[in-house]
Write a structure and sequence with these properties.
- Helices cover 40% and strands 20% of the residues.
- It is an alpha+beta fold and 296 residues long.
- The strands form three sheets. Strands 1-2-6-7 form a four-stranded antiparallel β-sheet, sandwiched between helices.
- It is globular and about 60 Å long.
Length: 296
Amino acid sequence: MGFYDLSHGAHQFGGLGLALDAPNTQVKVSKSENLLIDAKSSENTAKIIDKLVKSFNLPKNFSVSVLQNIPQHAGLGSGTQMALAIGAGLNQLFNLKLSIAQIAVAAGRGRRSGIGIGAFELGGLLVDNGKQSNAQTSIASRMSFPSDWRVLLISDSAHVGVHGALESSAFGQLNPAQDNVKNLVFKYMLPALQRDDLLAFGAYMIDLQAYNGEYFAPIQGGVYASQDVAKVLTWLQENGAACVGQSSWGPTGFAILRNQLASDLKNQAQLAFAAKPNISFSIVRGKNSGAEIILA
C-alpha cells in the first residue's frame, strides 16, 4: 500500500501492506530421484530453486509443483510468496530448521520491503520498520484486518508493473524525498483501523498514496501506473469509495469498502467499464493468518 519514508533516513522505505486471501500461491514439494520442476512453473521459479539449493547445499532429489500462482508483475507480491512457499516446503522436506527470515535472505527477498515476508509468516495488516543499512527489514506492527471490510481489486491485463533490473534502476534514478509520512501511518492510520473507522483510514490512505505516487511518477508515467486503473479509481471515489490506491508498482489498484458496498460497486463498475476488456474486478478479504504448511 506504499512506503512512508522515501527520504533515505535512518530507516529507509518502511511500508504498509495487507495479506489477502486471494489470489493464492500453492506449491507442492516432494522427494524424487532427480530434481523435477513442473512445466507450468515460470523461469523465475527455477531461479528461486537454484538459489535455495546453492544457499543450503541441498541434494537435487526433490520435485516442485506449482498448483496455484499469484499473477506476476501485478503488484501483488508474487515473487516473494513463491520464494517463501518453495523455501518453506524445502525446509520441511529436509528438516533444515530454518526461520522464514533465513529463507527470505537466501532467496534474496525483503531487500526493501518486509511486507511480503510478514504476510507469509503472520498475515493481517502490516507495517515494517524499513531498511537500516544492510540489516533485514522487520515488522514494526501487525493488526487484524476488520472482518466486514473487503478489498475490491482492479486488474489491468494490458499493463505490466515495474520489476527486476528496471526496478533496481528506478530506485537509483530517484532522488530522496524531502520528508516522510511516518506519523501519518503510526499516529493516524493504525488507530483508525483499530477503531474500525474506514472513512478516516481511507482519507489517510489517499495521503499515503499521493506521497508515493508523486515520488514514483517519473518512473511509472504518472501517479498510477495504469491510466485505465486510474480512471476506475476516480470513478470509485465519485461513487462512494473512501479508500483507494495502487498496490506496489501496480498496475493493480484497490478500493477498501464495507462488504455490501464492495459488491454493489463491483457490479456497477463492471457495467461502467465494460468497454475495457483489459480491466477486471474481484472482491477479496484480508487474510489474518500466515501461510499454511500441510504435511502429507
